[in-house]
Amino acid sequence: MSLATETRPMTRREWLLSDRPQSRLQARLGRAYMTWRRFSANRLAVVGLLILLGLCFVAAFADLLAPHSPVIGNLAGARLLPPGSEGYLLGTDDQGRDILSRLIHGSRLTLAVVVLVAIIAAPVGLIVGAVAGYAGGWLDAILMRITDIFLAFPKLVLALAFVAALGPGIENAVIAIAVTSWPPYARIARAETLTVRNSDYIAAVRLMGASPARIVFRHVVPMCMSSLIVRVTLDMAGIILTAAGLGFLGLGAQPPLPEWGAMIASGRRFILDQWWVATMPGIAILIVSLGFNLLGDGLRDALDPRESGQ
Amino acid sequence: MMHKLNGRFRLLTASAALALAMGAAQPVFAETPKDTLVEGFAFDDIITMDPGEAFELSTAEVTSNTYSLLVRLDLNDTSKVVGDLAESWTVSDDGLTYTFKLKQGMKFASGNPITAEDVAYSFERAVKLDKSPAFILTQFGLNGDNVTEKAKATDAQTFVFTVDQPYAPSFVLNCLTATVAMVVDKKLVLEHVKPMTPDDKYKYDNDFGNEWLKTGYAGSGPFKLREWRANEVVALERNDNYYGEPAKLARVIYRHMKESSGQRLALEAGDIDVARNLEPGDYEAVSKNGDLATTSAAKGTVWYISLNEKNEKLAKPEVQEAFKYLVDYDAIGATLIKGIGEIHQSFLPKGVLGALNENPYTFDVAKAKELLAKAGYPDGFTVTMDVRNTQPSTGIAESFQQTLGQAGVKLEIIPGDGKQTLTKYRARNHDMYIGQWGMDYFDPHSNADTFTNNPDNSDAGTNKTLAWRNAWDVPELSKKTKEALLERDSAKRAEIYKELQKSVLDDSPFVIIFQQTEVAGLRGNLKGFKLGPSFDTNYVWNVSKE
Predict the structure, then answer these.
(1) B298-517: what CATH class?
(2) Contact B398 A274 (CB under 8 A)
(3) How far is CA A291 from the centre of its chain?
(4) At what angle do helices A170-196 and A99-135 cross, to 10 degrees?
(5) CA–CA distance, A134 with A295 (Å, rounded to integer)
């Protein structure tokens, strides 16, 4: 009898949920599946994910999707047309450019800013925090005081100062936002590190002769990842808003780049009579920020080890 | 002083309380005080209030209302001048000596009497400071060494001005209507001079009050300058010591408002009486509003894009001509500048002696591409343009960016406020620049002198004309410009100016786009508000309220 049950092929689900995984791979996949189940149970989080997948899709195929050029308009023939005009679904701006096409191409800039800031700021914060937390002593004190200095300034004001010093432009905006957004990650990473640095498995690794660098990167950093990912995702909405804010103030993307914040800035002149010029990019920013926030919320629930039940 | 402030404060609190009480009874309706004119005005170009240094359009409006001149433009016939401080004047037979008799019993706002000494000192400091507008005076042969001889007071009421060549008298008098010739209160300024150490660049031991006058005031106009806070407010107050007819309103407040839509909203709400920087869309809306009125005046101002010849690509004549074919004149005229200007491609504004009213260039990408290929750039190149971030500069720049792109030229726009872009332009560190040129006095020479005169093209050149700023070295045209100046026969003089304009049209780093019409939106209860033909004739002393 027992033989018969063992030979019955496991369903893929059972294999993933097995409480006695046969390999590391199975264990990892099992955990990932659990996480996905918790995540997908949250409807709003899935909506957020879909919004962002949509954003990525639009950005990837912008050239195919955009009905018009984002930078060359028809000043004489199609200036400030209202939404729904023939050939211009969302209307045109003051240079006769199709707003829909500009939004579609602008998604690339938005995505680029978010991704670049995330891959610059998150690792920096992670390393600073993990090193400070693990090393302790004077190194901890120095790194954390530097972090405190950055935290002492309002984020947008500091970013403004950096851009003013570096000169306007989208690259400099990315640098400025990255420079101002790593300190919270360092704080989180340090807090997580402090909880694990004295645990038994770290002591075991140390006894086996692992170097501090190996301990930090192989055994401490992975423990900080989940809370960091949640925090970065939740911050992305803020990053988009900061980038749009810089664009709005003329310090981010320069004309004719279809950056959404800059589009709002140029459209606000017409807000009384041609509301759509400023409203459309505003709606785009709203939707994408909402997407990131929903996704971040869902990830927090899904990744929180205290609620994982394992 | 304290007492006065308290009084004013009490008044303010009282009116605030009254406003609150009224607000409870009926919808909130803001109204400016009966004795105060409030204008919404973008004046981010103001650098200094010193008439000896200021050369900005917004400053000209403020100083022309607060300072006096020997002679002013006659607004009824702009080819003539009328006396302001001067009662009468005579020109010697050789055309070199001008003698001005001052009116009797005039006083500065400070209470000091106005004498010929003050006039002489004003000329002296303007010439010795040698700031941007000094050339208007130094072109008559004045310099730091001879100015006290050539512009001097022979007695308290007589001022004698000697020029180096027998210019047409109207030209000399027109020049004296420029803001640089405004008369400052010598006694008051001398109280505020700052000692300087003379060196090779600056030979005098004091700054002639230049630093103090940056925000200070030492004039005698119908209004006195009470306060200027950069990008915030300019406040004028009636000058009770004024020698002429007193201003009708007690004070004039210019509020810095950059946005056209903001000005329109404030005008509609009654927060301001005059909106000065209305864009076409908003101007149209204001003109349809029954509570509001509009006024407009053609200005002696042309808008142009200039190419710095220090950039070797932009120095090529084919490139310059190609760029003239790459402006979409028709579309810009029909949209971006509708109501605030009309397409005009020569450097003399319509209405001025000798103005050429031909617009030979049209938008033609094929022709431009051909010219660019001839210049050796069939695939175009990359170039930057400094743009003041107000309209219509930005709009035109963006349109130009697109049309240049169609011929393969990649234009990078460097936005900045008026101060940043102007400073860079005057140091000729730009590639391209979009700007406006307002005439300094109503004479064709004003524009000819800046567009076609460049006596010293080296970086050390002190005559910083537009030709100099764009490193356009034109000895032939400079000579011709001088000739026109000494030509006493009006018809012949006009002919020379026509030739100069043709040269600039055919072959120059200037792409002239349009002539400005200045517009303003007004509250319906305003009387007597009139825009002048230039930026230093937008007088506010005749304005009153019903």
Answers:
(1) alpha beta
(2) no
(3) 10
(4) 40
(5) 31
**Where would I find the H helices in B49-95?**
57-66
Domains B67-192 and B298-517 share a fold: no
ipTM given for this complex: 0.72
Which pairing describes strands B274-275 and B36-41: parallel, antiparallel, or unpaired?
parallel
pLDDT of residue B498: 92
Nearest neighbour of A94 by CB, restricted to B285, B395, B405: B395
With 0-12 CB in 10 A as exposed, 13-18 as middle and 19+ as buried, what is B105? exposed
Residues 236-265 of B with CB under 8 A from A: 259-261, 264-265
The pLDDT-based confidence of B15 (bands split at 50, 70, 90) is: low
- Report the 10 Å Cβ neighbour count for B250: 16
Q: Which helix (H) or strand (E) holds B413?
A: strand B410-416
Please give, rounded to a whole number of angstroms, the shortest distance from the CA of A71 to a CA of chain B: 7
Task: List the CATH number of the domain containing A252.
Answer: 1.10.3720.10
pLDDT one-digit tens code per residue, B347-381: 998 877 788 888 999 999 999 999 999 999 999 89
Give the Cα separation of A284 and B103 in Å (integer): 68
Domain assignment present for A248: yes
Dihedrals phi, psi of B219, to nearest 5 degrees: -120, -165
User: Would you say residue A160 lies in a domain?
Assistant: yes
Query: For a pLDDT cut of 70, what percent of chain B falls above it?
Result: 94
- End-to-end, the C-alpha distance of chain B in Å comes to 31
Please state the φ and ψ torsions of residue A150, each to the nearest 5 degrees.
-65, -35
Residue in chain B closest to A95 (alpha carbons) equals: B399
Tokens of residue B94, six digits: 């050789």
Q: Print the domain residue range for A97.
A: 60-308
Chain A residue with minimum CA distance to B278? A269
Q: How many domains in chain A?
A: 1
On whether the CB atoms of residues B101 and B88 are closer than 8 A, the answer is yes
- Answer yes or no: are the C-beta atoms of B215 and B87 closer than 8 Å: no
Lookup: tokens for B402: 């697109």
Mutation choice for B interface testing from A68, A94, A254 by most B CBs within 10 A: A94
Asked if the Cβ–Cβ distance from A95 to B402 is below 8 Å, we say yes
Contact criterion met (CB below 8 Å) for B86 and B223? no
| pTM score, whole prediction | 0.71
Torsion A277-A281-A287-A293 (CA) sign: negative
Identify which of B389, B399, B412 has the shortest CB distance to residue A95: B399
Of residues A145 and B24, which shows the higher confidence score? Answer: A145
Chain A CB contacts of B263 under 8 Å are none
**B292 or A308: which leads in pLDDT:** B292
| Span of B34-38, B203-207, B350-354 with lowest mean pLDDT | B350-354
* Inside any domain, residue A18: no
Q: How many beta-carbon contacts under 8 Å exist across A and B?
A: 63
Q: Which residues, other chains included, contact B39 with Cβ-Cβ below 8 Å and sequence gap of 6+?
A: B252, B253, B254, B255, B272, B273, B274, B275, B276, B540
What CATH number is given for B30-65+221-291+524-545 in this structure? Answer: 3.40.190.10
The residue among A166, A171, A264, A272 with the most chain B CBs within 10 A of its CB, best to mutate, is: A272
Q: Domain B67-192 adopts which CATH fold?
A: Dipeptide-binding Protein; domain 1 (3.90.76)
Residue A123 lies in a domain: yes
B37 vs B25: CA distance, rounded Å:
27
Torsion region of A228: left, alpha or beta (phi above 0 gives left; psi -120 to 50 gives alpha): alpha
| pLDDT given at position A305 | 58
For residue B262, the SS3 value is: helix
pLDDT tens-digit series, residues A242-273: 888 888 887 888 878 899 988 998 888 888 88
- Domain boundaries defined on chain B: 30-65+221-291+524-545, 67-192, 298-517
